[in-house]
Amino acid sequence: MAARRQRRRMDLGTLAGLVVAVAGILGGYLLEGGKAGDVLGESAALIVFGGCLGATLVANPLPLVKAAFARVRDLLYEVPDDKAELIERLVSFSQAARKQGIVSLEQDVMAIEDPFLHKSMLLAVDGMDLQEIRGIMGLAMDAAEHRADAEAKVFESAGGFAPTIGIIGAVLGLIIVMGDLKDMDKVGKGIAAAFVATIYGVGSANLLFLPAAHKIKARAAQQRLREELILEGVCGIVEGMNPKMIRAKLEAYLAKASKEKSSPAAGARAAA
């Protein structure tokens, strides 16, 4: 996902989702008479998360895994929706371009911090034709989307490995238990502890890895829509389109963004 030099804010959805999920599962367990200490196990955590990391590294190139981990920050923070501000800015550029020519925007373009908007406007000010601008920026959008999809698949692969490694951890625990059947009280506790690895494996897959992959794809779809809005606005400026027409055209993206925000899964599928 292309970097945006904007102030980020905490993604309360991610944090609240994790808290609700863990509280719900653990709360239900405690209500049934379970003890929180029974589902804590350092060895189980080492087997599951260490094994999962190793399997993920085997399945994916190291640079891709590192890039995917760098995405974790995007899961905790979100960029405020600035599409309305973008429309106002692009309409302002179009008004200036119609009055004084698009070259007059050169100083304004150099002050743009947003990388995608900056590059699009720079191509326009440099006199590149419409088809070339669409081609170059379209490739940039495709590349960003491809990166996001590849990094999401790293988390999907981790989510696929985790339950199986959890079962491996449980079997290893049972092997240790079965080696000493003299004390049945210890055997019972040992069997219970062995299944903690299974909980870690299934839990991490469904509460962390797979949701993380889904959110990366949803964020990439939102970013793609934002960049399409920018590109349409810049192309409208290059075409010399009436600012009112540009505004009307770009405002259609607000409705589309609102629809995808209410159904992020549909947005992610559309972008796939």
Describe this structure in words.
With 272 residues, the chain is mainly alpha-helical. It contains 12 helices and 2 strands, in the order E-H-H-H-H-E-H-H-H-H-H-H-H-H. It has a two-stranded antiparallel ribbon. It is elongated.
Secondary structure elements and pairings:
Layout: E1 9-10, H1 12-31, H2 42-59, H3 62-70, H4 72-76, E2 77-78, H5 83-100, H6 106-110, H7 115-125, H8 130-178, H9 184-194, H10 196-239, H11 243-262, H12 264-271
Antiparallel strand pairs: 1-2
- Helix/strand-derived category reads mainly alpha
Mean pLDDT: 87
In the predicted model, the low-confidence regions spanning at least 5 consecutive residues are none
Helix residue percentage: over 70%
Strand order of the largest sheet: 1-2
Most strands sheet: 2 strands, antiparallel
The end-to-end distance, rounded to whole angstroms, is 14 Å
Order of helices and strands: EHHHHEHHHHHHHH
Share of residues in strands: under 5%
Report the total helices: 12
Q: Radius of gyration, rounded? A: 25 Å
Query: What's the number of extended β-strand segments?
Result: 2
Global morphology: elongated
